[in-house]
C-alpha cells in the first residue's frame, strides 16, 4: 500500500460520485464499499517502518513542545470532582509551573457536567474545553438524548464536542443512520467543533476504519478520532496511519482539511514522536498543528514534561516531580 496509489484510487472513488452518495442508504453503501481495500500486512509494515525513524536533537525538542501543544488533557471517570477538573485545567494552562517557556496544552476534555467548571478555570487562556457527548462511551441512546447532551455541553461553554458513533449501527451496515446522526450532532454543536469517535478497537478491520473515516468526513466532522480510551486496543499507529491517509485523500478530493485525534494508550514521548513522524510522512506538514492533530491523553503529558526537562537540564526529574492526573 503506497501513498501514491492510495491517494489516486481514493480520490478517484470520490470524484466518481461524491456529490450523490448521501442520497440513499444504497448509494452510501456503494460509495463506502467502493473505497480501496486496505492491505493489512502492508499497512502494518509501513507503520512499523515509520515508527523506527529517528530525528535530530533539535527536532526532538521542537517535537516535544509541539506534542504538548497538541494534548487534549483528559479526565473521564465517574469519580471526577470539580476540584480535580480545576487542577487539570490549571495544569493545561501551565504544564510546568517552574518553566514559563513550556507551552500550554490544546484543550481539557471532560464530561458535559464538568464543562462549566473547566471553562471558568480556563477563562481567556486560549486552552479549549472539549466535552464528550452523545451517550459516551457506548453511543447507544436515542438521537434526541444525544442532541440534548450536545446542546447542554455547548451552552455550558464547550468549544469542542467529542461524539461517539453507534458502532452497532455501523457494523450492521446502517451507514445512513450513522451519517445522519453525525450531521444532526454537528448542527447541534453550533460554533463548537465536532470530533467523531469511531472506537476503532470495535470496528474489527482496517477497511471499516477507512469507511468510518470517509463517512464522518462527508457528514461534516471537523476531526476524526480513534477511541474513547475505554476499549482496548485504543489508538494504534497503523489505525492512525489509515485515518491520516483518509484525511489526505479527502482533501485531494474536496479541498477540505479534517483533523485526526488518536486517543488512548499513548503514554510516552517516544510514542508521541512516532505519531508526529507518521503525520508528516503520510498526511503532510500541514497537519503538524494543534488545529489539525491532537493527542487524547492523561499520562502522556507528564512524560513529555520529563523529557523536556531532561533536554533542558541534562538530568531526569523523578516521576513524582509533576502532578499526577
TrEMBL record:
Pathway: Carbohydrate degradation; 2-deoxy-D-ribose 1-phosphate degradation; D-glyceraldehyde 3-phosphate and acetaldehyde from 2-deoxy-alpha-D-ribose 1-phosphate: step 2/2
Enzyme Commission designation: 4.1.2.4
Reaction catalysis annotation: 2-deoxy-D-ribose 5-phosphate = D-glyceraldehyde 3-phosphate + acetaldehyde
Top EC class for this record: lyase
This protein's GO CC annotations: cytoplasm
NCBIfam families: deoC
Family annotation (PANTHER family): DEOXYRIBOSE-PHOSPHATE ALDOLASE (PTHR10889:SF3)
The protein, known as: Deoxyribose-phosphate aldolase
